[in-house]
Amino acid sequence: MLTAEQAERGIDAGASFLVTPGCRPEVAQAARTRGVPVVLGALTPTEVARAVDLGAAAVKIFPARSFGPGYFKDLRGPYPDVPLVASGGVNAGNAAEFLAHGALAVCAGTDVVPPSAVEAGDWAEITRRARAFTRACAAGA
After folding, report:
1. 36: burial class by Cβ within 10 Å (0-12, 13-18, 19+)?
2. pTM for this one?
3. 3-state class of 41 per DSSP?
4. Could you give the C-alpha distances from 98 to 44, 69, 76, in angstroms and in order?
5. Beta carbons of 98 and 90 less than 8 angstroms apart
6. Taking the CB of residue 91, how many other CB atoms lie within 10 A of it?
7. Which Pfam family, any one, appears in the UniProt record (predicted)?
8. Distance of alpha carbon 54 from alpha carbon 92, whole angstroms
9. Could you tell me the strand order of the sheet in which 84-86 lies?
10. Going from the N-terminus, what domains does the chain have, and what CATH number goes with each?
């Protein structure tokens, strides 16, 4: 979600939570007004603080790959109680490490659901990738 209008449409369509790629005050306001939790995107410690101030239920660190799992351990220092979600470049090979370093959750993207597999209708391959990702996350728990 990038705009309040998109947030409203999502909520009207039945969304039980919203996610943004960055700190989007207008999306946070729409979510708050409608009583829907929002996960705001951030990268820097300042952006994490802003997301918390805007009422984020959790903060999505994006792109997580750029700073790596150790960055989550670093963010735990000043933000020990903020739920952090790793997004961007998370895959079966590194998901458990993000979780071990302080991420509450991880997001899977094109590594699990490649656009080419969707286009080809290769649901078996997507299922295989999703199961591998889930197993990798569970192994790190």
Report:
1. middle
2. 0.90
3. strand
4. 17, 5, 12
5. yes
6. 17
7. Aldolase
8. 32
9. 18-19, 38-42, 58-61, 84-86, 105-106
10. 4-110 (3.20.20.70)
pLDDT in tens, the chain (141 residues): 899 999 999 999 999 999 999 999 999 999 999 999 999 999 999 999 999 999 999 999 999 999 999 999 999 999 999 999 999 999 999 999 999 999 999 998 999 999 999 999 999 999 999 999 999 988 765
What are the E-state strand segments in the chain? 18-19, 38-42, 58-61, 84-86, 105-106
| 63 neighbors 41 (Cβ within 8 angstroms) | no
Tokens of 20: 């943004």
Contact 60, 107 (CB under 8 A): yes
Lookup: tokens for 5: 């209008």
And the tokens for 85? 């979600």
Tokens 């933000």 locate to 79
CB 95 within 8 A of CB 75: no
Total number of residues shown for the chain: 141
